[in-house]
Amino acid sequence: MMTQSKTLADLMIAFQAAQTAIVHVKALRWPNGPVCPYCSSANAYTLSRKNMYRWPSAAGNFSVTVGTIFEDTKLPLRIWFGAIWLITNHPKGIA
Q: CA dihedral in degrees (4, 8, 11, 17; nearest 10)?
């Protein structure tokens, strides 16, 4: 897991690869492994399609972003992380 970035440049360097951001969200959201966001089953398993999971008790797939503000986004997570960093670190706030 990543430590707090002092600058936006540090953040962008830390999340150069898209997979790094996905791994970071996964570690924050599921510290003990994937859990189904629909039925809370901890028996989810990884699909061959990268970053997708399935739970055995239902016929459906999910990703690490399902049920979060990042669900259905077209932007890479690193861009969202940058925007969040800017908003939370601006001394006067951003309207």
A: 170
Distance CA 93, CA 89 (A): 8
Judging by DSSP bridges, how do beta strands 52-54 and 45-46 pair with one another? antiparallel
User: What does pTM read for this prediction?
Assistant: 0.78
Tens of each residue's pLDDT in the chain, 95 residues = 556 778 888 889 989 998 899 999 999 998 988 887 777 777 777 887 778 888 777 667 888 888 899 999 999 999 999 999 888 887 776 76
